[in-house]
Amino acid sequence: MAIYTIRTTSGREDIVIDLLIKKLENTEIDIKSIFHPAEIKGYIFVEAAPGNVHKIMQGLMHIRGMIEKPVKLEEIQHFLESKKTRIAVSMGDVVEIIGGPFKGEKGKITRIDKVKEEITIELLEASIPIPVTVSVEFVKIIKKSAQKEEESEQKEEEFKSTGAFENIGSSDTEKDSEEKQ
User: Which CA distances in Å does 144 have to 17, 24, 138, 140, 152?
Assistant: First the structure.
């Protein structure tokens, strides 16, 4: 078995995978795996014997052909490794959904699931608060929570209260004249 590349219509990779899986359910064709890295548009990878790949792709929509030369596992290994994303959101942040059915909607974060890397937000523009759970990858922060802003303002006030900014630029003679008055 080897890994082969199937060319597809760009943006239709998931549809092609679904069609391949449905076709596999009704046949005895031996396909070990099918995957599509999000970083590569217009291509999916299939692990199977070359004859099986040709059989399974016949007559399916959005398939543009197959690259006959097998792909070495080392060439695509980095697509198979899971990448840890750091969750940089906090409760109360206002975010915009950038993918999925709620794309363009804005909401406030009400729950964070670090294990699943998902957040639950309440949509701001809805007349009734609707909780929506989405992956952290599908949001961008529009405004940090007021709590975070207050913490940074508090730190700034603490710094100023240490006297670090007092008497900067004033000479000793000015201090002496102030003390005499």
Answer: 38, 47, 17, 11, 11
